[in-house]
Structure to design on (160 residues):
């Protein structure tokens, strides 16, 4: 992975303390696919005077020069992914969480001819959507509660 310095120099950008702070925060939140808000909270721990706007603008700049990928979730705010090499994503449609996964088969499948002819493809990423394990668990819990209620109602009716 390129360092912040290399990327900034290649794009004629100064390596400002704010950019360093946002970069560091991204590294520590790597696994989370953080939103701008999450990065902002992390940056504030060491730089309490930075504004949300500065963090957000820095993240968008980073996306522009290829330090992070800006991924549009199926739900909630845009997420940022500092891990840019070959992995795929699972998006939870309920809580908006984004998980990484690897699958060599996905890396190897061919490109559609009409795309390959017209455009230059630089990356390939598969996005799977669904309910994450945590949301599934919650859903089951809600399901159990609902059916218990129904059962109690039926019991009460029997007593009537
Ligand atoms: Zn979820
Ligand atoms: Zn990712």
């Amino acid at each position: 992975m390129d360092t912040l310095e290399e990327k900034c120099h290649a794009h004629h950008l100064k390596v400002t303390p704010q950019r360093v702070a946002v970069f560091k925060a991204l590294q520590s939140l790597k696994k989370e696919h953080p939103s701008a808000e999450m990065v902002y909270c992390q940056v504030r721990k060491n730089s309490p005077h930075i504004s949300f706007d500065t963090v957000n603008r820095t993240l968008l700049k980073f996306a522009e020069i290829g330090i992070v990928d800006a991924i549009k979730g199926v739900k909630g705010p845009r997420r940022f992914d500092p891990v840019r090499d070959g992995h795929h994503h699972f998006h939870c449609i309920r809580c908006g969480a984004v998980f990484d996964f690897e699958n060599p088969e996905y890396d190897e499948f061919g490109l559609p001819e009409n795309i390959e002819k017209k455009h230059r493809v630089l990356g390939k990423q598969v996005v799977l959507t669904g309910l994450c394990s945590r949301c599934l668990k919650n859903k089951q819990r809600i399901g159990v509660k609902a059916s218990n209620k129904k059962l109690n109602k039926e019991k009460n009716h029997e007593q009537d």
In short: The chain has a mean pLDDT of 86. The radius of gyration is 22 Å. The domain at 1-84 is CATH 1.10.10.10 (Arc Repressor Mutant, subunit A).
